[in-house]
Amino acid sequence: MFKSVNPANGQEIAAYPELSGAEVEDKLHKAAEAYRHWRESPVSERAALLKKIAAQYEANKDRLARMATMEMGKTYASAVGEVDKCIAAFHHYAEHGPAMLVPLRHALSTGGSAELHWLPQGAVLAVMPWNFPYWQVVRFIAPTILAGNVGLLKHASNVQGVAGLLEEMVVAAGAPVGLFQNLSVKSKAVADIIADDRIVAVTLTGSEGAGMAVAGQAGRQLKKVVLELGGSDPFIVMPSADLDTAVRMAVKARIQNTGQSCICGKRMIVHADIYEAFLAKFSTAMKAVKAGDPMDPASDMGPLSSFEQRDTVLQQLVEARQQGAKLLFGGEALPGPGAYMSAGILTEVPLDSPLMHEEIFGPIAMLFRAANIDEAIRIANNIPFGLGSSVWTNDAQEQQRFIRDIQAGMTAINQMLASSPEAPFGGIKRSGHGRELGTHGLHEFMNLKTVLRVAG
């Protein structure tokens, strides 16, 4: 049994039954049957379905947003924005995806030609997290449907209401039975599902531990896996940057989703020449952040996703201070029934601290002083993660240095890093491998078939 608890007040919302082995088998059978027909469907039919799903999201926007707010605590405004982003993704793949599947032809030096065809492969299992409970899944659903594959979702335990709505929207749009199904199972069931011959690949967004477990299970079955894991993204500010804009976006990057985002700017690395000015402005802005009722438009952030998650962050702060870091302010559990905490700033974090190998999934920023661009890059790369990065500089040469030398899958220049349907998303190092979104995300779970033709 899964229990859905509202982190804003600690009250149980609903309980959801766990699927039995027989029910899982039935869903796998339906997925296989759906794939037999869907793989042969015209791409135009697949694109039309995506538009119908987008229409369902549009018609149910308030209902979808409220469920996310209740189950994991994100502000209602951000939940609406997340649903809007999902709608944009469905439309993007419906409108531009068919062109991504047109075969390419290359002349061969030996004569004749090689054609590249992207073909579907089967049922893909998605293991997804709670922090962006719609968006993380939709960026899997949309390309999966367009590719001619079918999808099975194992969602996080605390967002089972969202998981049910994700399936409901696809079914309501008129999708074939079994095209996309929610699997209400716990983590212990995942290995057997991956081992099933009807599953051809796995995609996971989550923690390092979850990534290693799923990658190991998929590897034993010789099945492809895409991993989007944790991050401790650098947010680098250089003297040529617009300081006020950089500060404003640093606050937004750190507190969005109450700091529970893999690509939040978590480590603010500031050039020594502007460090004190940045610290003063950043401190003022972070102290002004209001944590409160996520349904209240005046709240800058809601509670953390659970009391357990809040306790994890609070313990990280205790250990950080024991390691020599200084908590300037904030980082405290707030009174009341919800899993709220105040935004805060850590300074003087030792570069060899164990905290540098962890991800703080809460509204706490770490602030570092860098003497020059070389030191800024060294600090940025001094972690096992390599997901995203954000750099603030108007110096073209500095921009090129950061693009070349920051070890990350993504770098945003003079803007906060964010995902979008058009651009590939993913990391390197212990932040995972493979890409979601864009053309690359569409092709990840497709068979790139080379077809050789004779000249003439």
From TrEMBL:
<keyword id="KW-0521">NADP</keyword>
<keyword id="KW-0560">Oxidoreductase</keyword>
<dbReference type="InterPro" id="IPR047110">
    <property type="entry name" value="GABD/Sad-like"/>
</dbReference>
<feature type="domain" description="Aldehyde dehydrogenase">
    <location>
        <begin position="2"/>
        <end position="451"/>
    </location>
</feature>
<protein>
    <submittedName>
        <fullName>Succinate-semialdehyde dehydrogenase</fullName>
    </submittedName>
</protein>
<dbReference type="Pfam" id="PF00171">
    <property type="entry name" value="Aldedh"/>
</dbReference>
<comment type="similarity">
    <text>Belongs to the aldehyde dehydrogenase family.</text>
</comment>
<dbReference type="InterPro" id="IPR015590">
    <property type="entry name" value="Aldehyde_DH_dom"/>
</dbReference>
<dbReference type="InterPro" id="IPR044148">
    <property type="entry name" value="ALDH_GabD1-like"/>
</dbReference>
<dbReference type="InterPro" id="IPR016163">
    <property type="entry name" value="Ald_DH_C"/>
</dbReference>
<dbReference type="InterPro" id="IPR016162">
    <property type="entry name" value="Ald_DH_N"/>
</dbReference>
<dbReference type="InterPro" id="IPR016161">
    <property type="entry name" value="Ald_DH/histidinol_DH"/>
</dbReference>
